[in-house]
Amino acid sequence: MKYRMVVFIVLCSLLSYGQEKWSLQQCVEYAIKNNVSIKQSDVQARLTRLSSLQSQMTLYPNVGGGVSTGYQHGLTEDPTTGTLVSSSFISGSANLQASYNIFNWNARRNSIAANKLYAQADEIGIDKAHNDISLAVANAFLQVMLRREQARISEVQLNQSRSQLGNTRKLVNAGSQPELNAIQLEAQLAKDSSGLLQAQALEQQALINLKAYMNYDFSLPFDIQSPAVESIPVENIADLQPAAVYQLAVATQPIQKMYKLRIEAAQKEAKAARGLMYPSLSAFGGMNTRAVNAKYPVMAFAPPDSTNAFVTIGTTQYKVFAPSVRQLGTVGIPLFRQLSKNFGQSIGLSVNFSIFNAYTSRTQWERAKVNVVQLQLQDEQENLNLKTNIYNAYQDAFSSFQKYNAAHRTVEYSQKAFDISKKRYDIGLLGTLDFIITQNNLYLAQIDEISSRYDYVFKMKVLEFYKGQGIKL
Protein backbone atom coordinates (compact mmCIF):
# COMPACT_ATOMS: atom_id res chain seq x y z
CA MET A 1 0.00 0.00 0.00
CA LYS A 2 2.82 2.38 0.88
CA TYR A 3 4.58 1.51 -2.37
CA ARG A 4 1.50 2.38 -4.41
CA MET A 5 1.15 5.67 -2.55
CA VAL A 6 4.79 6.58 -3.33
CA VAL A 7 4.33 5.73 -7.01
CA PHE A 8 1.14 7.80 -7.11
CA ILE A 9 2.89 10.81 -5.57
CA VAL A 10 5.83 10.51 -7.98
CA LEU A 11 3.52 10.26 -10.99
CA CYS A 12 1.56 13.28 -9.81
CA SER A 13 4.77 15.23 -9.35
CA LEU A 14 5.97 14.35 -12.84
CA LEU A 15 2.60 15.22 -14.31
CA SER A 16 2.50 18.58 -12.58
CA TYR A 17 6.09 19.23 -13.63
CA GLY A 18 5.28 18.37 -17.21
CA GLN A 19 2.28 20.66 -17.21
CA GLU A 20 4.35 23.65 -16.17
CA LYS A 21 4.71 26.19 -18.95
CA TRP A 22 8.18 27.58 -19.47
CA SER A 23 8.93 31.23 -20.08
CA LEU A 24 11.76 32.32 -22.35
CA GLN A 25 13.88 33.23 -19.32
CA GLN A 26 13.41 29.75 -17.85
CA CYS A 27 14.31 28.13 -21.17
CA VAL A 28 17.47 30.22 -21.48
CA GLU A 29 18.56 29.50 -17.90
CA TYR A 30 17.99 25.76 -18.36
CA ALA A 31 19.92 25.78 -21.64
CA ILE A 32 22.86 27.61 -20.07
CA LYS A 33 23.09 24.91 -17.39
CA ASN A 34 22.63 21.92 -19.68
CA ASN A 35 23.62 22.77 -23.26
CA VAL A 36 26.54 20.63 -24.48
CA SER A 37 28.38 23.44 -26.30
CA ILE A 38 28.38 25.53 -23.10
CA LYS A 39 29.74 22.57 -21.14
CA GLN A 40 32.47 22.18 -23.75
CA SER A 41 33.39 25.85 -23.39
CA ASP A 42 33.54 25.40 -19.62
CA VAL A 43 35.82 22.36 -19.98
CA GLN A 44 38.11 24.30 -22.30
CA ALA A 45 38.29 27.15 -19.79
CA ARG A 46 39.19 24.70 -17.02
CA LEU A 47 42.01 23.26 -19.14
CA THR A 48 43.51 26.69 -19.83
CA ARG A 49 43.21 27.58 -16.14
CA LEU A 50 45.24 24.46 -15.32
CA SER A 51 47.85 25.42 -17.94
CA SER A 52 48.04 28.91 -16.43
CA LEU A 53 48.48 27.51 -12.92
CA GLN A 54 51.17 25.09 -14.09
CA SER A 55 53.11 27.88 -15.81
CA GLN A 56 53.02 29.98 -12.62
CA MET A 57 54.64 27.10 -10.74
CA THR A 58 57.74 27.49 -12.94
CA LEU A 59 58.68 30.47 -10.75
CA TYR A 60 59.64 27.95 -8.06
CA PRO A 61 62.68 25.62 -8.06
CA ASN A 62 62.50 22.11 -9.45
CA VAL A 63 63.15 19.61 -6.66
CA GLY A 64 63.48 15.85 -7.10
CA GLY A 65 64.95 12.88 -5.36
CA GLY A 66 65.26 9.15 -5.48
CA VAL A 67 65.97 6.06 -3.42
CA SER A 68 67.33 2.87 -4.97
CA THR A 69 68.44 -0.56 -3.76
CA GLY A 70 69.82 -3.65 -5.46
CA TYR A 71 71.46 -7.04 -4.99
CA GLN A 72 74.92 -7.76 -6.43
CA HIS A 73 76.75 -11.07 -6.66
CA GLY A 74 80.20 -12.07 -7.87
CA LEU A 75 82.98 -9.77 -8.96
CA THR A 76 81.60 -6.29 -8.81
CA GLU A 77 82.46 -2.79 -7.63
CA ASP A 78 81.79 -1.94 -4.02
CA PRO A 79 79.75 1.32 -4.20
CA THR A 80 81.18 2.57 -0.91
CA THR A 81 84.88 1.90 -1.60
CA GLY A 82 85.08 1.79 -5.37
CA THR A 83 87.15 -1.41 -5.32
CA LEU A 84 86.42 -4.64 -7.13
CA VAL A 85 85.38 -7.41 -4.77
CA SER A 86 84.00 -10.87 -5.21
CA SER A 87 81.12 -11.00 -2.87
CA SER A 88 77.35 -10.84 -2.51
CA PHE A 89 75.74 -7.85 -0.91
CA ILE A 90 72.75 -5.52 -0.99
CA SER A 91 73.47 -1.87 -1.70
CA GLY A 92 71.31 1.23 -1.52
CA SER A 93 71.55 4.94 -2.28
CA ALA A 94 69.52 8.11 -1.82
CA ASN A 95 69.75 11.49 -3.53
CA LEU A 96 68.04 14.87 -3.60
CA GLN A 97 68.52 17.46 -6.37
CA ALA A 98 67.23 20.97 -6.95
CA SER A 99 67.58 23.41 -9.84
CA TYR A 100 66.36 26.93 -10.53
CA ASN A 101 66.39 29.07 -13.64
CA ILE A 102 67.77 32.38 -12.43
CA PHE A 103 67.55 34.40 -15.64
CA ASN A 104 66.30 33.62 -19.16
CA TRP A 105 65.52 37.06 -20.61
CA ASN A 106 61.97 37.06 -19.18
CA ALA A 107 60.93 34.12 -21.35
CA ARG A 108 59.35 32.41 -18.36
CA ARG A 109 57.45 35.49 -17.16
CA ASN A 110 56.13 36.20 -20.65
CA SER A 111 54.93 32.61 -20.94
CA ILE A 112 53.12 32.94 -17.60
CA ALA A 113 51.49 36.19 -18.74
CA ALA A 114 50.44 34.57 -22.05
CA ASN A 115 48.81 31.62 -20.28
CA LYS A 116 46.94 33.96 -17.94
CA LEU A 117 45.59 35.92 -20.90
CA TYR A 118 44.55 32.73 -22.69
CA ALA A 119 42.72 31.62 -19.54
CA GLN A 120 40.90 34.97 -19.37
CA ALA A 121 39.99 34.67 -23.06
CA ASP A 122 38.49 31.22 -22.55
CA GLU A 123 36.53 32.50 -19.57
CA ILE A 124 35.03 35.13 -21.87
CA GLY A 125 34.46 32.31 -24.36
CA ILE A 126 31.96 30.89 -21.87
CA ASP A 127 30.07 34.20 -22.01
CA LYS A 128 30.11 33.99 -25.81
CA ALA A 129 28.65 30.49 -25.64
CA HIS A 130 25.97 31.82 -23.26
CA ASN A 131 25.07 34.58 -25.73
CA ASP A 132 25.01 32.21 -28.70
CA ILE A 133 22.74 29.70 -27.01
CA SER A 134 20.51 32.47 -25.63
CA LEU A 135 20.00 33.83 -29.14
CA ALA A 136 19.37 30.33 -30.53
CA VAL A 137 16.87 29.52 -27.76
CA ALA A 138 15.07 32.83 -28.31
CA ASN A 139 14.78 32.11 -32.03
CA ALA A 140 13.51 28.57 -31.35
CA PHE A 141 11.09 29.94 -28.74
CA LEU A 142 9.66 32.44 -31.24
CA GLN A 143 9.43 29.69 -33.85
CA VAL A 144 7.24 27.69 -31.48
CA MET A 145 5.03 30.74 -30.94
CA LEU A 146 4.84 31.29 -34.71
CA ARG A 147 3.98 27.68 -35.48
CA ARG A 148 1.38 27.69 -32.71
CA GLU A 149 -0.23 30.84 -34.10
CA GLN A 150 -0.23 29.37 -37.59
CA ALA A 151 -1.89 26.22 -36.22
CA ARG A 152 -4.52 28.42 -34.54
CA ILE A 153 -5.25 30.21 -37.81
CA SER A 154 -5.48 26.85 -39.60
CA GLU A 155 -7.95 25.67 -36.98
CA VAL A 156 -10.08 28.80 -37.47
CA GLN A 157 -9.98 28.19 -41.20
CA LEU A 158 -11.06 24.59 -40.66
CA ASN A 159 -13.94 25.62 -38.40
CA GLN A 160 -15.09 28.19 -40.95
CA SER A 161 -15.05 25.57 -43.70
CA ARG A 162 -16.89 23.10 -41.49
CA SER A 163 -19.56 25.70 -40.60
CA GLN A 164 -19.92 26.77 -44.20
CA LEU A 165 -20.26 23.15 -45.30
CA GLY A 166 -23.04 22.63 -42.72
CA ASN A 167 -24.96 25.63 -43.98
CA THR A 168 -24.47 24.63 -47.62
CA ARG A 169 -25.54 21.05 -46.91
CA LYS A 170 -28.82 22.38 -45.48
CA LEU A 171 -29.39 24.49 -48.59
CA VAL A 172 -28.58 21.53 -50.82
CA ASN A 173 -31.03 19.34 -48.93
CA ALA A 174 -33.63 22.07 -49.30
CA GLY A 175 -32.99 22.14 -53.04
CA SER A 176 -31.85 25.78 -53.18
CA GLN A 177 -28.20 24.93 -54.08
CA PRO A 178 -26.71 22.19 -56.25
CA GLU A 179 -24.87 19.18 -54.80
CA LEU A 180 -21.68 20.41 -56.48
CA ASN A 181 -21.40 23.28 -53.99
CA ALA A 182 -21.36 20.86 -51.05
CA ILE A 183 -18.83 18.57 -52.76
CA GLN A 184 -16.49 21.50 -53.41
CA LEU A 185 -16.74 22.58 -49.78
CA GLU A 186 -16.08 19.03 -48.62
CA ALA A 187 -12.89 19.03 -50.70
CA GLN A 188 -11.93 22.35 -49.12
CA LEU A 189 -12.69 20.92 -45.66
CA ALA A 190 -10.37 17.96 -46.33
CA LYS A 191 -7.65 20.36 -47.50
CA ASP A 192 -8.05 22.52 -44.39
CA SER A 193 -7.91 19.41 -42.16
CA SER A 194 -4.64 18.40 -43.80
CA GLY A 195 -3.32 21.96 -43.37
CA LEU A 196 -4.15 21.89 -39.66
CA LEU A 197 -2.39 18.55 -39.18
CA GLN A 198 0.66 19.88 -40.99
CA ALA A 199 0.66 23.06 -38.88
CA GLN A 200 0.42 21.01 -35.69
CA ALA A 201 3.30 18.80 -36.87
CA LEU A 202 5.42 21.89 -37.52
CA GLU A 203 4.58 23.13 -34.03
CA GLN A 204 5.82 19.84 -32.53
CA GLN A 205 8.99 20.03 -34.62
CA ALA A 206 9.62 23.55 -33.32
CA LEU A 207 9.20 22.26 -29.75
CA ILE A 208 11.68 19.46 -30.47
CA ASN A 209 14.22 21.98 -31.80
CA LEU A 210 13.78 24.08 -28.67
CA LYS A 211 14.29 20.99 -26.47
CA ALA A 212 17.44 20.16 -28.43
CA TYR A 213 18.98 23.58 -27.72
CA MET A 214 18.04 23.19 -24.05
CA ASN A 215 19.26 19.58 -23.92
CA TYR A 216 15.90 18.72 -22.40
CA ASP A 217 14.66 15.12 -22.28
CA PHE A 218 12.52 14.57 -25.38
CA SER A 219 10.36 11.99 -23.61
CA LEU A 220 9.16 14.46 -20.95
CA PRO A 221 6.11 16.68 -21.58
CA PHE A 222 7.03 20.26 -22.31
CA ASP A 223 5.20 23.45 -23.19
CA ILE A 224 6.02 27.16 -23.33
CA GLN A 225 4.31 30.20 -21.96
CA SER A 226 3.46 32.14 -25.10
CA PRO A 227 2.97 35.88 -24.65
CA ALA A 228 0.87 37.66 -27.24
CA VAL A 229 3.12 38.89 -30.01
CA GLU A 230 1.52 42.33 -29.71
CA SER A 231 2.69 42.54 -26.08
CA ILE A 232 6.37 41.86 -26.86
CA PRO A 233 8.26 45.14 -26.32
CA VAL A 234 10.21 46.27 -29.37
CA GLU A 235 12.35 49.38 -29.61
CA ASN A 236 11.79 51.99 -32.26
CA ILE A 237 13.86 51.02 -35.26
CA ALA A 238 15.00 54.64 -35.56
CA ASP A 239 16.82 54.21 -32.21
CA LEU A 240 18.77 51.21 -33.53
CA GLN A 241 20.87 52.82 -36.23
CA PRO A 242 23.53 50.28 -37.33
CA ALA A 243 26.53 52.58 -36.84
CA ALA A 244 25.63 53.29 -33.21
CA VAL A 245 24.75 49.66 -32.53
CA TYR A 246 28.10 48.56 -33.98
CA GLN A 247 30.07 50.88 -31.70
CA LEU A 248 28.25 49.44 -28.68
CA ALA A 249 28.68 45.86 -29.90
CA VAL A 250 32.45 46.20 -30.37
CA ALA A 251 32.76 47.25 -26.73
CA THR A 252 30.32 44.71 -25.26
CA GLN A 253 30.30 41.53 -27.37
CA PRO A 254 32.41 38.73 -25.80
CA ILE A 255 34.05 37.56 -29.01
CA GLN A 256 35.65 40.98 -29.57
CA LYS A 257 37.02 40.98 -26.01
CA MET A 258 38.20 37.41 -26.45
CA TYR A 259 40.23 38.16 -29.58
CA LYS A 260 41.85 41.21 -27.99
CA LEU A 261 43.06 39.05 -25.10
CA ARG A 262 44.32 36.35 -27.46
CA ILE A 263 46.26 38.90 -29.49
CA GLU A 264 47.90 40.20 -26.32
CA ALA A 265 48.68 36.62 -25.25
CA ALA A 266 50.23 35.85 -28.64
CA GLN A 267 52.44 38.94 -28.34
CA LYS A 268 53.65 37.67 -24.95
CA GLU A 269 54.36 34.27 -26.51
CA ALA A 270 56.45 35.95 -29.22
CA LYS A 271 58.52 37.71 -26.55
CA ALA A 272 58.96 34.42 -24.70
CA ALA A 273 60.09 32.66 -27.88
CA ARG A 274 62.65 35.39 -28.51
CA GLY A 275 63.97 35.12 -24.94
CA LEU A 276 64.62 31.40 -25.44
CA MET A 277 67.14 32.27 -28.18
CA TYR A 278 69.53 33.82 -25.65
CA PRO A 279 71.68 32.17 -22.92
CA SER A 280 70.08 31.29 -19.61
CA LEU A 281 71.61 31.17 -16.15
CA SER A 282 70.64 28.40 -13.73
CA ALA A 283 71.65 27.24 -10.27
CA PHE A 284 71.72 23.65 -9.13
CA GLY A 285 72.48 21.68 -6.00
CA GLY A 286 72.21 18.18 -4.66
CA MET A 287 72.83 15.73 -1.84
CA ASN A 288 73.49 11.99 -1.94
CA THR A 289 74.61 9.08 0.19
CA ARG A 290 74.93 5.30 -0.09
CA ALA A 291 75.42 2.14 1.96
CA VAL A 292 75.96 -1.63 1.62
CA ASN A 293 75.47 -4.56 3.97
CA ALA A 294 78.80 -6.21 3.04
CA LYS A 295 81.06 -7.81 5.66
CA TYR A 296 84.71 -6.75 5.74
CA PRO A 297 87.58 -8.95 7.12
CA VAL A 298 89.28 -8.07 10.44
CA MET A 299 93.07 -8.67 10.11
CA ALA A 300 95.74 -8.97 12.84
CA PHE A 301 99.58 -9.14 12.62
CA ALA A 302 101.32 -12.16 14.26
CA PRO A 303 105.08 -12.57 15.14
CA PRO A 304 107.12 -12.85 11.92
CA ASP A 305 108.10 -16.30 10.63
CA SER A 306 111.70 -17.16 9.81
CA THR A 307 112.53 -18.07 6.23
CA ASN A 308 115.53 -19.79 4.60
CA ALA A 309 116.48 -16.65 2.78
CA PHE A 310 119.41 -14.37 3.69
CA VAL A 311 120.30 -10.84 2.71
CA THR A 312 123.99 -9.91 2.58
CA ILE A 313 124.85 -6.36 3.46
CA GLY A 314 128.55 -5.75 3.26
CA THR A 315 130.17 -8.78 4.78
CA THR A 316 127.29 -9.59 7.07
CA GLN A 317 124.42 -11.89 6.25
CA TYR A 318 121.00 -11.20 7.69
CA LYS A 319 118.20 -13.72 7.94
CA VAL A 320 114.88 -12.73 6.30
CA PHE A 321 111.71 -12.97 8.35
CA ALA A 322 108.24 -12.93 6.63
CA PRO A 323 105.40 -10.93 8.24
CA SER A 324 102.42 -12.98 9.31
CA VAL A 325 98.83 -11.64 8.92
CA ARG A 326 95.83 -13.47 10.29
CA GLN A 327 92.12 -12.88 9.66
CA LEU A 328 90.30 -12.74 12.93
CA GLY A 329 86.79 -12.60 11.34
CA THR A 330 84.45 -10.24 9.47
CA VAL A 331 82.50 -7.20 10.55
CA GLY A 332 79.92 -4.89 8.92
CA ILE A 333 79.80 -1.11 9.14
CA PRO A 334 76.61 0.23 10.81
CA LEU A 335 74.05 1.72 8.42
CA PHE A 336 73.90 5.24 9.84
CA ARG A 337 77.68 5.41 10.05
CA GLN A 338 77.85 4.57 6.34
CA LEU A 339 75.19 7.13 5.46
CA SER A 340 77.06 9.79 7.40
CA LYS A 341 80.44 8.83 6.04
CA ASN A 342 79.26 8.67 2.41
CA PHE A 343 77.13 11.81 2.57
CA GLY A 344 78.00 14.26 -0.25
CA GLN A 345 76.77 17.68 -1.38
CA SER A 346 77.07 19.71 -4.57
CA ILE A 347 76.15 23.22 -5.64
CA GLY A 348 76.90 25.23 -8.73
CA LEU A 349 75.86 27.54 -11.55
CA SER A 350 75.37 26.72 -15.20
CA VAL A 351 75.04 28.82 -18.33
CA ASN A 352 73.14 27.18 -21.17
CA PHE A 353 73.13 28.50 -24.70
CA SER A 354 72.41 27.11 -28.12
CA ILE A 355 75.07 27.41 -30.77
CA PHE A 356 73.13 25.71 -33.55
CA ASN A 357 69.88 23.76 -33.28
CA ALA A 358 68.78 23.52 -36.91
CA TYR A 359 67.08 26.95 -36.79
CA THR A 360 64.51 25.61 -34.31
CA SER A 361 64.50 28.53 -31.87
CA ARG A 362 64.36 31.21 -34.55
CA THR A 363 61.62 29.33 -36.39
CA GLN A 364 59.55 29.20 -33.18
CA TRP A 365 60.03 32.95 -32.77
CA GLU A 366 59.02 33.64 -36.38
CA ARG A 367 55.96 31.38 -35.99
CA ALA A 368 54.97 33.24 -32.83
CA LYS A 369 55.14 36.55 -34.69
CA VAL A 370 53.10 35.15 -37.57
CA ASN A 371 50.54 33.88 -35.04
CA VAL A 372 50.14 37.45 -33.75
CA VAL A 373 49.45 38.69 -37.27
CA GLN A 374 47.03 35.84 -37.88
CA LEU A 375 45.05 36.65 -34.73
CA GLN A 376 45.01 40.33 -35.65
CA LEU A 377 43.55 39.44 -39.04
CA GLN A 378 40.98 37.18 -37.39
CA ASP A 379 40.02 40.01 -35.05
CA GLU A 380 39.69 42.34 -38.03
CA GLN A 381 37.56 39.75 -39.82
CA GLU A 382 35.35 39.28 -36.75
CA ASN A 383 34.83 43.03 -36.52
CA LEU A 384 33.92 43.08 -40.21
CA ASN A 385 31.54 40.14 -39.71
CA LEU A 386 29.98 41.90 -36.74
CA LYS A 387 29.47 45.10 -38.71
CA THR A 388 28.05 43.13 -41.65
CA ASN A 389 25.68 41.22 -39.39
CA ILE A 390 24.46 44.39 -37.70
CA TYR A 391 23.88 46.27 -40.94
CA ASN A 392 22.16 43.23 -42.45
CA ALA A 393 20.06 42.80 -39.30
CA TYR A 394 19.02 46.44 -39.54
CA GLN A 395 18.09 46.12 -43.21
CA ASP A 396 16.28 42.83 -42.49
CA ALA A 397 14.36 44.44 -39.62
CA PHE A 398 13.44 47.44 -41.76
CA SER A 399 12.33 45.16 -44.61
CA SER A 400 10.38 42.95 -42.21
CA PHE A 401 8.64 46.00 -40.81
CA GLN A 402 7.64 47.11 -44.30
CA LYS A 403 6.57 43.59 -45.19
CA TYR A 404 4.50 43.32 -42.03
CA ASN A 405 2.71 46.61 -42.77
CA ALA A 406 1.95 45.43 -46.28
CA ALA A 407 0.75 42.04 -45.00
CA HIS A 408 -1.44 43.76 -42.42
CA ARG A 409 -3.12 45.85 -45.13
CA THR A 410 -3.52 42.71 -47.23
CA VAL A 411 -5.35 41.02 -44.35
CA GLU A 412 -7.68 44.00 -43.99
CA TYR A 413 -8.57 43.99 -47.67
CA SER A 414 -8.84 40.19 -47.78
CA GLN A 415 -11.15 40.24 -44.77
CA LYS A 416 -13.40 42.79 -46.46
CA ALA A 417 -13.40 40.73 -49.66
CA PHE A 418 -14.26 37.60 -47.70
CA ASP A 419 -17.13 39.29 -45.84
CA ILE A 420 -18.62 40.52 -49.12
CA SER A 421 -18.08 37.15 -50.77
CA LYS A 422 -19.78 35.32 -47.92
CA LYS A 423 -22.86 37.54 -48.13
CA ARG A 424 -23.06 37.04 -51.89
CA TYR A 425 -22.48 33.30 -51.52
CA ASP A 426 -25.20 32.98 -48.91
CA ILE A 427 -27.77 34.53 -51.27
CA GLY A 428 -26.54 32.55 -54.27
CA LEU A 429 -24.83 35.38 -56.18
CA LEU A 430 -21.32 33.85 -55.94
CA GLY A 431 -20.08 30.44 -56.97
CA THR A 432 -18.51 28.03 -54.49
CA LEU A 433 -15.11 28.01 -56.16
CA ASP A 434 -14.94 31.80 -56.13
CA PHE A 435 -15.94 31.80 -52.46
CA ILE A 436 -13.27 29.18 -51.62
CA ILE A 437 -10.65 31.22 -53.44
CA THR A 438 -11.59 34.32 -51.46
CA GLN A 439 -11.49 32.33 -48.22
CA ASN A 440 -8.07 30.85 -49.07
CA ASN A 441 -6.75 34.28 -49.93
CA LEU A 442 -7.73 35.49 -46.47
CA TYR A 443 -6.12 32.45 -44.87
CA LEU A 444 -2.85 32.93 -46.76
CA ALA A 445 -2.85 36.65 -45.94
CA GLN A 446 -3.30 35.91 -42.25
CA ILE A 447 -0.47 33.36 -42.30
CA ASP A 448 1.78 35.82 -44.13
CA GLU A 449 0.92 38.58 -41.67
CA ILE A 450 1.71 36.55 -38.55
CA SER A 451 4.93 35.21 -40.10
CA SER A 452 6.02 38.73 -41.00
CA ARG A 453 5.18 39.94 -37.49
CA TYR A 454 7.29 37.28 -35.80
CA ASP A 455 10.11 37.75 -38.29
CA TYR A 456 10.12 41.48 -37.57
CA VAL A 457 10.12 40.90 -33.80
CA PHE A 458 13.06 38.49 -34.00
CA LYS A 459 15.07 40.81 -36.27
CA MET A 460 14.53 43.62 -33.79
CA LYS A 461 15.54 41.38 -30.89
CA VAL A 462 18.78 40.60 -32.74
CA LEU A 463 19.53 44.31 -33.00
CA GLU A 464 18.73 44.77 -29.31
CA PHE A 465 21.02 41.82 -28.56
CA TYR A 466 23.92 43.43 -30.44
CA LYS A 467 23.20 46.65 -28.56
CA GLY A 468 23.91 44.75 -25.34
CA GLN A 469 20.36 44.53 -24.00
CA GLY A 470 20.18 40.73 -24.05
CA ILE A 471 17.14 38.74 -25.14
CA LYS A 472 13.78 39.41 -23.51
CA LEU A 473 10.16 38.99 -24.55
Automatic annotation (TrEMBL):
This is Transporter. Keywords: Cell outer membrane, Membrane, Transmembrane, Transmembrane beta strand, Transport. Its main location: membrane. One of its GO terms (molecular function) is efflux transmembrane transporter activity. The keyword tRNA processing does not apply. The lineage of its organism: Bacteria, Pseudomonadati, Bacteroidota, Chitinophagia, Chitinophagales. Belongs to the outer membrane factor (OMF) (TC 1.B.17) family. It is found in: Cell outer membrane. The keyword Transmembrane applies. InterPro entries: OMP_efflux (IPR003423), TolC-like (IPR051906). Transmembrane segments: none annotated.
